Amino acid sequence: MIINGYTxxxxxxxxxxxxxxxxxxxxxxxxxxxxxxxxxxxRVPKGHVGEAVKGAFALNLLGVxxxxxxxxxxxxxxxxxxxxxETIGAVNTLVRVEGGxxxxxxxxxxxxxxxxxxxxxxxxEKVLILGAGGVARAVAILVAEKGADRIVILNRTLEKxxxxxxxxxxxxxxxxxxALELRAYLSLPGDGYLAIQATDxxxxxxxxxxxxxDALFYExxxxxxxxxxxPAETRFMSLVKENGGxxxxxxxxxxxQGIIAYELWTGAEVGPVLAKKAYAEMxxxxxxx
Length: 289
Fold this sequence. Notes:
- By secondary structure, the protein is of the alpha/beta class.
- Helix content is 37%, strand content 21%.
- It is built from 10 helices and 12 strands.
- The strands form 2 sheets. It has a 6-stranded mixed beta sheet, with helices on both faces. Strands 9-8-7-10-11-12 form a 6-stranded parallel beta sheet, with helices on both faces.
């Protein structure tokens, strides 16, 4: 890559940000598509998000990704916000517009694109969501929009799960979602669930942990999707497989949220061959064979 006076800059703001795999995705895409563009990490100290957004615009950055802990904090500093990001309440992609940035959420479209590629359908499914944080809320909104037949939100604190269920039912205009306390998992009716693991349990370095260990729970799951991408195979995924289900991790979600952001910034279309190459480069950066 040759960097010159015409090179456009994109990056990811967060804190910490040193662990990011996004440069492997975006710099591969730029190189393969012949774009004069470079993507770098941008560490933003606590309390400086507004200054960072204004500075990024003033410095003529083409676009910015936003990672934890700033996905909600960044919203007041945007010129515009996409309806999906506004509904979810989280922004992970800033696209340059006149006078500032427009905020998008590509995490959930990225998850959906990854699930489609993995052959995982949402329409007509009984969906079980583990967790009731911001990510779980976004997942619940996504699966409701994509035609889930029923949604059960399983969480240690029942009230948090109930709040999400009520919100989803309000958006759907019907009784679609319900909440269940985590310890009551054996009372889940029937089996045949698509389970989406939306907590940070099992994330590096505590890779030997899962929210639930009981094999009887995993026998209810035909497909498990863990949003964690490090490690590439989590304890949750292993338990799903050990009990006869299919299991997928968060690596492809990470890939496709990045690809969608890149497409928004540049107007390019990233096809399956290039997506596969970017995926390989991302895994190489993570030392995954």
